UniProtKB/TrEMBL annotation:
This is Phage tail protein. GO terms for molecular function: structural molecule activity. NCBIfam families: conserved hypothetical phage tail region protein. It holds the Pfam family Phage_T4_gp19. It comes from Kocuria dechangensis.
Length: 147
């Protein structure tokens, strides 16, 4: 869907899915990045002039961080357990982050292939505190595309 001229997608509209299942209560996603290696080629011309060229390298793998409100769900921690047990085939999943417009329609989707969870962390717990308990997990991926 095209946005009107001078309109941008709101930062507060997004969904996160893992193997097609939406992750509930997501608060924040960071690390949405596409990157390629940079190859530096240093040459010398026949007249002795030093030249440096930057060439496009291979796509880089990466990671995203998802923060969500803590629930009774053990899906993410069970996923980490699968990774720790060395079950490579069982640990690999697909993930997607969809950016939504004001109407809730998808503006752009980041797709990630061969994902696995690297870490799961709960925020600091303080006696008498009133803030929400959150679960933050880091997902590593091999390939990414944008639609």
């Amino acid at each position: 869907m095209a946005l009107e001229e001078f309109d941008n997608a709101p930062a507060n509209g997004f969904t996160v899915t893992i193997d097609g299942i939406e992750v509930p209560r997501v608060i924040e996603v960071s690390g949405l990045k596409h990157e390629v290696d940079k190859i530096e080629l240093k040459q010398q011309t026949k007249d002795g002039k030093y030249i440096v060229r930057q060439l496009i390298g291979r796509p880089k793998a990466g990671e995203i961080t998802v923060t969500r409100g803590l629930t009774e769900s053990k899906t993410v921690t069970d996923w980490l357990k699968t990774v720790m047990e060395g079950d490579v085939a069982g640990a690999r999943k697909t993930a997607a982050v969809a950016l939504l417009d004001y109407k809730g329609e998808t503006v752009k989707t980041y797709n990630f292939v061969n994902c696995w969870v690297r870490s799961v962390e709960v925020n600091s717990l303080k006696a008498g505190a009133t803030e929400q308990t959150t679960e933050k997990f880091v997902i590593c991926y091999d390939e990414s595309t944008v639609e």
